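Form 7-S
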Amino acid sequence: MTADSDEVRQRVQNELRVSLLGALAATVDGQELTLGPPRQRAVLAVLALRANHVVSRSELIDAVWGDEPPASADNGIHTYVAGLRRLFEPDRASRAPSSVLLSTDAGYMLRLPSDSSDAATFRTHLDDAGRLRAQPAAAIAAFDAALGLWRGIALDGVPGPFAAVERARLAELRLTAVEQRAALMLSVGREAEVAAELTTLVSAHPLRERLHGLLMSALYRGGRQAEALAVYTDLRRLLIEELGIEPGPELRQLHEQLLVGRHDPQPEPAAPVLVPVQLPHEIRDFTGRAKELAKLAEVVPHDHSPVLVAITGTGGVGKTALAVRFAHQVASRFPDGQLHVDLRGFDASSPPVQPAAALHQLLQSLGVPAERIPDDLPAKSALYRSVLAGKRVLVLLDNARLAEQVRPLLPGRSSSMVLVTSRNHLGGLVARDGAHSVTLSTLTRDEALALLTSAVGPDRVAAEPAAAAKLVELCGHLPLAVRIAAERVVTRPHLTLADLADDLADERDRLNVLATGDDEDTAVRAAFSWSYLALKPDAARMFRLIGLHPGAEISLNAVAALTGVPVSRARVLVDVLAGGHMLEEVARGRFRLHDLLRLYATELSATEESSDGRAEAVKRLLRWYFDTANAAGTVIAPPDHPSFLLPPLSTQDFASHDEAFTWCRTESSNLLAVSRLAEEEHSPTAWQIPVALWNYFIVSSALDEWTRTYRVAERTAARDGNQAARAWAIHGQGLAAFRGQRFADALELFDRALSIRRDIDDHVGAAWSLTGLGMAYGGLRQFDLAVDRFGEALDRHAEVGSWFGEGGTRLFLSDILRSAGQYDASLAAAQRAFELMDSHDAVHGKAMALVAIGWAQHKLGDRVLARDSFRHALAFLRVLGDRKSLAEALHGLGEASAGQPDVARTHLLEALTIYEDYDHPLTPEVRARLHELA
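Output:
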């Protein structure tokens, strides 16, 4: 970026000013802006209060809508951001990047100098006042400057949970500033002004003891002792009526001083109070989590606002270990104490700790006598906030279950920090209470190895590096599992890392191995069970049944089929599981179980589901996969392709070739696993699913999946006695071998398929086997034999009346003849294929014939005709949606346009983009050609 552009950017940025301490307002170059609809103003409020920091889209959605955003929320955020950019930079070109409201991969960031926001300026003045306390007049002036910025209620009229939380936080800061300013004014003899100002304020805040104490002091010093005593009497009566408590010790001491007529009433020095230091001990071999520790360090409170952090993740991932580690690192920055409460949200042996009980424990830890602690929850919470007011305390609330369990334990006016750990997402704390979210995943491979090394010693890991790597992989990089594995090695010196890795390799026994003999609560299975037992029955059933799915990932629709519930209900339940970190959403609508959680779910399905229930669930899953694969294969197949062995169309709906192809590619690894599951279940879907995918494999380059899936199909079709299906499975393997340039294997496979087809009098299939043999011989460059087999194939296709078979065979013949250098014969074969396809209005067949014609013409040196043929083919293929064939036509057009380098590059680049998507074998050739043209 040039210096000039930097200067322009800075100038534009400095023109924007945002006012938050009242009704939200903004100006550009002094001109007030009309900020648009309420939610657009809510987005601006979030970005302005977090200026110069990236705010993720999910944080914006939570801030604006809370726990239940509409489906259109993501689009809504995009629309509001675009609207704000138009307001801030009206002269910016539509596609030019914004220099004020930036987009990043992680979200959005509003660039705003600190003096361009009244909220930031307010904080600056408060900090100045704090530094100037030894100079009362200067400190009062700083407070005056801070309070003078207020124009009413902060963020007045701005909707959303974030605005509500910030409105309360800013109001608390303002009130604290008023109290601190009043105390300073009393110190310099300005009691009359303080009395006048606070008389109104105590009416607005009738339970705030600090305000009442300041007013009492001001009135007494102004010679109004009776009024000062009346303020105390009124407050005491209200506290008893509303909260069931007496005023605090400081206010009671002040009241006694007024009664005896002390000239300069001040609270007596309080008796020393034991500062609570309750953090659990640190784990000796804590490893990794550098990014998470850095993120936590960034949010340690620096002003008068408390900070709330929710650390969430699955059982055994190390949430408490991280929280304790960080708490010990920053403990010195919280001189008023460090508190710890285990809320037992997922403890199988006892119910969760109720907020009232947790508050009682916290208040006693803070030195409040038991007799002064009220009984009801609101009064306890109010007293807790009063005790923490103005203090710097670190509170660790471990193992929370719900946001409602935490909210009463949050401090009000203070510089405290609250760390909450939970297996649940606690999205409500983020949306309503402004919590920073830290979600823990499993350790990286290197972190897991470092943890193992720290626990067992570097010598043992160095002696068996491969076994160590395998061990942490089998533990799923889960810290708890790695620690348990390390404990087994340390306590059994004869046990090698390789021995333990062998023990863990058996999935059926892995959870038993990952248990400690003397403490069941530390076993991986136990850690998972606490989360599982907290689930409601329908969510627990879904978790168990997902264990029956054989793949690494599962889609929402597959979950719905497996569990037999509507997709809308399945969405609700998977959100429950994901919110409890029992399931991870890896992409929209796609989910994954941690390896050890998958074993646990499988174990539960075997023990808690009936055999009939499991069988029905698997049957539903296999039927859904077959129906969807069938629908996808039919869409991928051009309408003029025959449907080999496919039953009637399913009810699944794909709108386009690309959509169907993407589904197949995304599910390809699952489809192999599902076919194997079907084989185990003796279900015919074991061969039906691969056959349904015929057209996907034809146009894809997933040769390994093609081969392995069709081997399953061959075995199961043979078991079922379906020789026709078996022959197609063998034929498919032959095509995969041919595409992989394993021509000898292809020859053997096509020959086997031909033998079966002749035995069962499958004349149509036999004709295609002969076509395959011609292709294989051509690949082996035995061109005479290839032409002979193609000739036989053409005769057989003609005998069974398959014009499509004849046309397809002539296209393969054209390719082989071109490889043999017989360009005229290649052109003739392609032209005859075109005539056949054209006579039956087979659009896709015509397009493929035109591609073959174009390549033959190009080889004959007639580039003009070749370009016409490729362009004609492109016109068909862009409509049909067959991207692989489209790329081959673009490739040809690029080669035929070599005399026009820019045109050639354009076509070849488009071809390369598609080839890379399909992992096409011609990808390196096109890259090299583009390099030459460059």
